[in-house]
Specification:
8-stranded parallel barrel, Chitobiase, domain 2, 8-stranded mixed β-sheet, TIM Barrel
């Protein structure tokens, strides 16, 4: 990760050993131990942190200090020549981020350990960053959600929002209380969120059939929320997206959300409430948005997807317009890498986070959450890239740094292979579906070049198949098989079986698994003059 400020001072401090021992000093909590900040003690097996009253001689003192002026779970880290490590932050997540930064700067060799005299000052660009599980389709499993929370926490993000459209208790049967087995799942999610310093938001979508004139619907909604409050949830969202609405809906929607806000205020000491309006994907004014913004309580956050449902780009100017219209803190619900729109289900999107202005972070932006695919394992790649943006938007170079993002997901030995594979699965909703060299190859109908490219892709696939990335391989296998079929089709064309190739292309058009690139079919249709039917 790239930090805002880095200062090195002098040489490394060398230790002729393979483990370090630190004495813990707390100026964060008056009475505490290292284990009070989850994820510190077990983060590095080669570092042992002892309590302040230890009589053992230690290599460093490590001090955790509170600094209320540090924003967005940032930190100040200083390693002194006098063998002191001082980490300042305004919350536990910041302390953990500073500790991880310290550990990452240590150099371990076969001969010993080198600790630099260094100062790091960093505040992440986004206050809120992570995932909203808000897609249409089969919801994730509990294990996938737990893994998502772990991935978020390990990659400097901080938020997971539960909003799967096809959870019947979230949308279609929102009035019904959750059964015991679902409540047990939420408790496990909350525990994991706490372990990784991730904020858990529960979203509910009553808008399809909420009766604004029926008192019982207000009571039912509050009863549902109270069930979740009772297990420890204090962050909520009211989603009124993708529904029919009526004249005066803005005022009614604001009234409903305000009613929930006041209910939460009675039942919780601290809470957060966000809402998604029915008009969530524009940056121009409307009577609905005027009424909503004017009537909604000021502390409620509002979701916005950009000026499209699946925004090709999100600019500072567009964001500023919607903020001036709503006059509320905005959470960008970014519909990438989701593939639930139209025929996108046939595709995977394995692509960097891009076409989002770094200047979005300057003011009035509460944060950004990505809406992923129903295939969690493959969604990690774009999320890993986004984590770099969330950490330091000004230094973010999504496409140029995509291999670094891939390394956060797979083992180093197949990073290059996965990068080659990803070039055929770009997010066509955000950028070109092909890299330029493939565009040029197709325009030239470069048979020899395409032949070499397919060999390169096929070799990459074989390496991925031979790796130990079992979950990933299981997720992408249908698309791997499709590519292998395309290679056979290409070979049949080279061998002169033209009629057979023409017949198979018709079947390929009906395939449930396609690449965004689709270079074999595109090339053969061009060469063989096959028209779309």
């Amino acid at each position: 990760m790239n930090y805002n400020e880095i200062y090195t001072e002098g040489d490394y401090i060398y230790f002729d050993k393979n483990k370090l021992t630190l004495k813990f000093i707390s100026k964060y909590y008056r009475f505490s131990s290292p284990s009070d900040i989850k994820g510190i003690v077990s983060y590095d097996k080669d570092i042992n942190i002892l309590l302040s009253d230890t009589e053992e001689i230690t290599d460093f003192n490590i001090e955790f200090s509170y600094n209320r002026n540090i924003k967005n779970s940032g930190f100040r880290l200083k390693v002194n020549p006098s063998k002191e490590v001082i980490i300042q932050a305004s919350d536990e997540r910041g302390i953990k981020n500073g500790y991880i930064a310290f550990v990452n700067e240590i150099k371990k060799t076969n001969n010993g350990i080198y600790v630099p005299n260094i100062e790091l000052n960093h505040e992440p660009s986004l206050k809120l960053s992570g995932v909203i599980e808000g897609f249409y389709g089969k919801p994730w499993t509990l294990d996938e959600r737990l893994d998502c929370i772990k991935f978020i926490g390990q990659n400097y993000m901080n938020t997971y929002m539960y909003a799967p459209k096809n959870d019947i208790y979230h949308r279609d049967r929102w009035r019904d209380l959750y059964p015991d087995n679902k409540i047990l799942e939420f408790k496990k999610i909350l525990r994991e969120s706490d372990n990784y310093h991730v904020d858990f938001y529960y979203m509910i979508a009553p808008g399809k059939d909420f009766n604004f004139n029926m008192k019982n619907d207000y009571i039912a909604l509050k009863s549902k929320l109270k069930q979740l409050i009772d297990i420890g949830i204090n962050k909520f969202g009211i989603l009124l997206d993708d529904i029919d609405y009526f004249k005066g809906a803005g005022c009614k929607h604001a009234g409903l959300v305000n009613d929930v806000y006041n209910f939460l205020k009675i039942n919780l000491e601290e809470f957060t409430l966000a809402m998604c309006p029915t008009e969530y994907d524009i940056d121009y004014d409307t009577p609905y948005l005027k009424s909503l913004g004017e009537n909604l309580l000021p502390d409620v956050k509002i979701f916005w997807t950009g000026n499209e449902t699946l925004s090709h780009r999100i600019t500072k100017e567009s964001f500023n317009r919607i903020y001036s219209i709503l006059n509320h803190e905005i959470i960008i619900w970014d519909n990438v890498p989701v593939n639930d729109f139209e025929s996108d289900k046939e595709l995977l999107f394995i692509a960097p986070y891009e076409n989002r202005s770094p200047y979005l972070c300057e003011n009035h932006l509460e944060g950004i959450v990505l809406n992923p695919m129903d295939i969690w394992e493959v969604s990690k790649f774009t999320l890993a890239s986004f984590s770099q943006y969330a950490f330091n938007a000004n230094s973010f170079r999504g496409r140029d740094d995509f291999k670094k993002a891939i390394l956060l997901v797979v083992s180093e030995d197949i990073v290059e292979d996965m990068y080659i594979f990803s070039q055929y699965f770009r997010n066509s909703r955000v950028s070109n579906s092909l890299p330029f060299y493939l565009i040029d190859m197709l325009n030239k109908v470069d048979i020899e070049g395409i032949d070499k490219e397919l060999d390169r892709l096929f070799n990459a696939i074989q390496n991925i198949k031979n790796s130990n990335q079992k979950n990933l391989l299981e997720s992408i296998m249908p698309w791997i098989l499709q590519i292998e079929e395309e290679k056979i089709l290409w070979q049949n064309f080279k061998d002169g079986y033209v009629d057979d190739v023409k017949n198979k292309i018709k079947l390929f058009n009906k395939s449930k698994h396609k690449t965004s690139a689709n270079i074999v079919v595109k090339t053969l249709k061009n060469i063989l003059d096959i028209k779309e039917t």
